[in-house]
Amino acid sequence: MAYQAGGRRSVPRSVPDSLETRDAQAYLQDYAVLLDSVLFPSVVLDHRWDVVVANAAFRSLFGNVGPHPTAMPDDNFLRFVLFHPDAATVLGDHEAGWCLPMLAHFAAAVEHHPQDRGLQSIRRDIAQDPIMDAAYRHGLPHWLRTVGPAAGRHDGAVRPVVHPDPRWGATDCRVVGETPDTLRELGYHRMTLVLREVDRPSHPVRRPRRPRHAAIGHLSVVPSPER
Fold first, then answer.
1. Is residue 138 part of a domain?
2. Where is the composition biased (Basic residues) (predicted)?
């Protein structure tokens, strides 16, 4: 993810080589201007969940997360959700609300793009994390059988977040997927998090605690081994 000098406006990634046209790049640049006019956090992603362009509200939501070599939210949102130690401090109900739905989307992406090197790299990183690997191989199928495949959808889902701006604070957001034809043709999709004002009725939101993987034997969605 790149930014113009001063960090005031997003600069979209270049379009894929097969679609490297002047019109496509100009469209993305204009779309970045549109995104920056949106009040709520909004981001354009590719099939690997690499961030193509994100608006200022998106960067503000994740403004307090610490550095990470491979899992920054404005670089690859999937890696952020799965691997960044600060993810649960922003994304409430991190396991069921964010991690498992993202793993479901990742599994679908791998099925559609089995030779994609970027997705293969993420799969290797999942395999190297015992907790995340258990979630992917055992927890995800168990969770989908329990709650149904609709729970893995992003569009329309209401999920808790904790915004660093006290005007929002701990609240809910409605995930809205809205992808115009031109973005879809480029292989991209857009996700917007419509934050709910604190005085609007919503489900109770518990402030998430920083996860401590080393102290966890297994994720709550992974069935314990029968004895």
1. yes
2. 203-215
pTM equals 0.81
Classify residue 226: in a domain, yes or no: no
Lookup: tokens for 89:
């401090």
Q: Is the predicted pLDDT of residue 216 greater than 90, yes or no?
A: no
Within 10 angstroms of residue 70's Cβ, the number of other Cβ atoms is 13
CATH number of the domain at 106, please. 3.30.450
Give the 3-state secondary structure of residue 185: helix
92 belongs to a structural domain: yes
How far is it, in rounded angstroms, from Cα 113 to Cα 4? 32
Domain hosting 159: range is: 2-13+23-209
* Of residues 36, 44, 131, 35, the one with CA closest to residue 82: 131
**Pairing between strand 42-45 and 189-195?**
antiparallel
Nearest to 161 by CA among 40, 37, 35: 40
Both tokens assigned to 191: 């996700």
Pairing of strands 2-3, 42-45: unpaired
pLDDT digits (tens, 9 = 90+) for 94-149: 998 999 999 999 999 999 999 999 999 999 999 999 989 998 999 899 988 888 87
205 inside domain:
yes
Neighbours of 219 (CB within 10 A): 21
Please provide residue 54's backbone torsions phi and psi, each rounded to the nearest 5 degrees.
Answer: -135, 150
For the chain, the domain total comes to 1
> What tokens appear for 5 in the block?
């000098």
- Residue reference for tokens 């099925």: 111
